[in-house]
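Quick start: what a row looks like.
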Amino acid sequence: MDTGLNRCPLQEDFLPRKSSKENLDRFIPNRSAMDFDYAHYALMECRKGKDQSAAVSSPSKEAYRKQLAETMNLNHTRILAFRNKPQAPVDLLPTNHSASLHQQPKSVKPRRYIPQTSERTLDAPDIVDDFYLNLLDWGSANVLAIALGHTVYLWDASTGSTSELVTVDEEKGPVTSINWAPDGRHVAVGLNNSEVQLWDSASNRQLRTLKGGHQSRVGSLAWNNHILTTGGMDGLIINNDVRIRSPIVETYRGHTQEVCGLKWSGSGQQLASGGNDNVVHIWDRSVASSNSTTQWLHRLEEHTSAVKALAWCPFQANLLATGGGGGDRTIKFWNTHTGACLNSVDTGSQVCSLLWSKNERELLSSHGFTQNQLTLWKYPSMVKMAELTGHTSRVLYMAQSPDGCTVASAAGDETLRFWNVFGVPETAKKAAPKAVSEPFSHVNRIR
């Protein structure tokens, strides 16, 4: 990285002061140490010497003059006398500040380099170009899952191996949503026929099918420990306890159209839902436990288009970011404790997905027409840090690697791209570099 970017603006223009010995710019004579009679004589002799400069003195006269001066103690070289050493001049800039002009303070981080192009681009044929679906997720075991048409594929980022998890029947598909359980082993697959399948990725075995809760496709999923929350086109949100025979434990009714976004907070206490009815609901589990049909905690109606993009802040409790569709184009920030809208930023295009950085106070958004870009924002100033382009169609889906550094994006252009947008994790910075193959280095096509 160019170190010039970290250079202090004053460094090239600043001239350091010389040492105090070379900056004796103020002298105060000591009168008690001076001979005023000799001083007057010396000044007059100097003038006489100039007036008589044309006259040539003989060698004998010059020798006599020197001997007389030595006898009379007239061999002074100075007129003014100084007894005490003058004080050193005071620097205009303190020493430690002066040094800081040449050396970056330790507390200030250098600006992070953000690659403007994707590290890898993979083919993703037959991916469904539908704003309301959720077809990409990256699990805690470092395995990425993507649904292409009727088939779910898995990539092990540690080994670069690819496998097919399941291909559903034509009458059940296509796959409309996918979400990893917190253990990184079990994955939920939502289908177009309203069913949800649970799979064990380690044994490649289907564990059970959840059916009867929804009347139409399941486009959104969210895990909260052993609770799998499903959102359907019928506007229902259902909490399923996957450990028991009759899994439905709560049903949330509030949306009048398809539920296209679901996210549990980090504490697992609050659930955010976004719908095609332009509404965001906040649901609280403590309220849910006392009602079979649960009333929302907050109903947020400021968006003017469908809300699919939802992201809970990892470093500030009760902070939720939401993104609106093509008719809205804004990212809004909410205090979910009070229901207040803290800020609203017009992004200029459809907001398809949102991801918070796990390591910095940054937010990544993916967009549709016209640029189909990923935009990195600094929070809370919402200054654009980078715009990542490469997709030629709206970037519908994003997923974040377990270490928080790499982001995978999938778009309607049938490509899957990987971006090193969030930097290097703290553990990787401290650890010695290891010879690990690049994730998915052996995969060139998803099929």
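That is the whole record. Residues 1-25, 97-101, 431-445 have pLDDT under 50 and may be disordered. The two ends are 37 Å apart (CA to CA).
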